[in-house]
Every structure is written in C-alpha cells, then in structure tokens.
Amino acid sequence: xxxxxxxxxxxxxxxxxxxxxxxxxxxxxxxxxxxxxxxxxxxxxxxxxxxxxxxxxxxxxxxxxxxxxxxxxxxxxxxxxxxxxxxxxxxxxxxxxxxxxxxxxxxxxxxxxxxxxxxxxxxxxxxxxxxxxxxxxxxxxxxxxxxxxxxxxxxxxxxxxxxxxxxxxxxxxxxxxxxxxxxxxxxxxxxxxxxxxxxxxxxxxxxxxxxxxxxxxxxxxxxxxxxxxxxxxxxxxxxxxxxxxxxxxxxxxxxxxxxxxxxxxxxxxxxxxxxxxxxxxxxxxxxxxxxxxxxxxxxxxxxxxxxxxxxxxxxxxxxxxxxxxxxxxxxxxxxxxxxxxxxxxxxxxxxxxxxxxxxxxxxxxxxxxxxxxxxxxxxxxxxxxxxxxxxxxxxxxxxxxxxxxxxxxxxxxxxxxxxxxxxxxxxxxxxxxxxxxxxxxxxxxxxxxxxxxxxxxxx
Length: 459
Prior knowledge:
Elements: E1 12-16, H1 21-32, E2 37-40, H2 46-54, E3 57-59, H3 69-73, E4 78-82, H4 91-98, E5 104-105, H5 106-114, E6 119-123, H6 128-141, E7 146-149, E8 161-162, E9 171-176, E10 190-193, H7 201-204, H8 207-219, E11 226-230, E12 240-246, E13 251-259, E14 262-269, E15 272-278, H9 284-299, H10 304-313, E16 322-326, E17 331-335, H11 340-353, E18 360-364, H12 368-373, H13 375-382, E19 387-390, H14 406-411, E20 418-420, H15 423-433, E21 437-442, H16 450-458
Parallel strand pairs: 1-2, 1-4, 2-3, 4-5, 6-9, 6-10, 7-9, 10-11, 11-12, 12-13, 17-21, 18-19, 18-21, 19-20
Antiparallel strand pairs: 7-8, 13-14, 14-15, 16-17
Helix pairs in contact: 6-9, 6-10, 11-13, 15-16
C-alpha cells in the first residue's frame, strides 16, 4: 500500500504517540515545512510540552472528539501516523481503522519523505545515534542544507531534528533503525553499517535473521551510491564498498593517544590523512563512529579541514558517554549502553581514560528477553568494572519471563563486589560512599536517577 496524498495536497498530519523521540522528529519536520500537526500521547512530558510550544496541538485523553475535525471530514487529505506502542484497545486507533483510514508507521513516513531528496543513512545495532548526529554536525558545520532525523538529543543543537533551510539542495541524514525491520523502508544514496551484532531477538528470532535484514538494507542503496561498513563485517554491496576501523580499513584511525582524559588520533582516508584530531566525546567506539560519519560526510563533499573542525566541536548526544560530573574529586558518566557489546565498549573506554581509578558502575537491564538471550555475555562485560550495582530489569514492552531476574544476572558476573539494589537504596549508598568514578548504564528509566546521583556525589 502506497501513500496516495501528495505533499502539495496535504492539509493535516496527525500522530498517535507523538511524544516518542523518533515520532517527534517526524512531527517537527512536517511543522517546519508548513503543515499543521496535531497528536495524542498517553503522558505529558517535557518533550510534548516543547512540541506544543512550537505550535503543535497535543492532547492526552484517548477521545475521538479530540481528533482535528479535518482529519475526520477530509481524511484523504491528511496523514495518520502511529507508533506500534499504541495498545490494541486504543479508542482513537480503532475508530480510524473502522473508518478504513490508513495508519502509517513512522518508518513508512520516513521512507516517503526521504524518497524526495538525497539521503545518508546510518544503520547498526550499536553507534547509529552518535554516528548520525556527528554526520549531521559535520554537514551543518560545512554549511550544507541538511535536514536530519535522529534517535537522540544532540548536545550541540538540543534537539533530535535539524530543519532544512529551504527546499534547494537538501540532503537528509536519517538514523536507520533495524528494530522491526523499519529501515527497509529506506532507499539511501549512501549508507554506513556500524555493527550487525545479534539484538532484538524477540523480533528476529535468531542472529542469522538480523544479518539477513542488514543485507536487505544494503541492497536498497540507490545505484551509483556509496556504502561503508566496519572492518570485519561481511555485508556485500554492488555500489562503492569501503571499510573503517582502528588501525584497519579504507578509513582508519591511527596514532590514538589520550591527553587530559580526552582522545586524539590521526585519520587515514583514500587519498589523504588528517592529523591530530581532538575529540570531545571519549571512547574507542566513538573513534569508530567518527570514522564512519567522516566517510559519509567526505562522500557528500565535506573537505578535510571542515572534518577536523567539525569533530573537534562536536559535543555528543545526551545519554551517550555523557559527563554529568567532571571535577578533581569526582567523575560521573552516563551511557545508554544496554547490550553486552555496548557495555564492554563503554567500560573499556572508561578504563583507558582513567586507568588508576576504581570503576563503580550501576546497570539497569533492559527487557527480560534481552537479559535471557545474552545472560553470559552480560556477565562478562559487566565484570570489566570493579564494582557493580544492578537495578531490577526494566520491562519496556514485555511481560516478565519466569526465572529471568537481576539476581540471576548477578550470579553470572565473575566478581566479588556486586549486588542487586533498589533505586532509593542505591542513592543512599552513593551519598555515603561517594565514589570518585561512577558510571550509570541502561536504556530504561535509569536516567531519572541522574540528578540524585549527581547530588549524592557532589553535596
């Protein structure tokens, strides 16, 4: 089924679940380009309040009466976009379905928008938010007309959406999400894949299906396009095919060193070299993300001087190796890491930056199924820290799985200083112990503890 309304005839856009990070970026694009936007969300949040202040009409009661009248009288001139998180018994959703009004997923709308301009897509089970955000920053810094749909809030711009400046010579940056295969709606002109580790096995079933989905994504790069993947990955492209990595690949980082708890490196690329690149975002994994973003930016015409200056001025993304405290007495870093590979990357980078400090880490497991599927790997990656606190598993979209608990995960961590702890008790422990180096990790609601953690360390 194709979207039949044209952008020229579109009169209203309506969102079911407008407050999600990805949905709100799409909503902002439509509003910025002159279309009226309204929507429903279950809960008012800082993000929904910001969207309302920008001019969107948002309500929090599940009522057909609150849907804009034009959506019901002229549905063929409107777009209806929903998130799969909307429950099956949702009144508005079921009314629209009963009226045979097409409901579109965010990914389908994103594919429809990006069909109409050159698109640079960033895919991968890890690193895509940082990579796509840095790529956007490199293009903006080089004064290109970019619009971007990102999966996190960039520190440089304070938003997950970068608006285009007019309709001429636009380029789109999109974070291509593998969850539920939504990235298969995209047909980019250039793309990167940062990783293809098994994840979302509740959706895919097996690692082989994850890899197959990434290959299908690569197959959709437009003819004459550009593809780059991390060295060691096995994806195949009919287009220009490059690799990146630390000390390996067509785009590679060499001479990596740490100066004042920050990383500096040289970049080799086909036909040249950029030396002494300083990074404000730490981590070996972020060096790899930087190589991937730089490759796509260079492909789209950004020169070496702008690459170096753009990297140096990039502040990162909220909840991606984000410093909340950085003083002589204490350091507190928060990271979205929720997969064993991400946890290993985070803790290994911390250990390299602070080799003489004891690493105290708190982790909130995300999803019962992910905890079950990677139980042993979680244990190994968490053991990189010196002391571990585990919060209860954050269920997100799942019901509990019998026997899958944080206590079970704790038993798989080969270290002595470890415990399962409640949120309030953890804050009390931090107030009394005040560790010099604290790392918070997880994709659930652990970010709600950050202010209390910061106060516990510094007060």
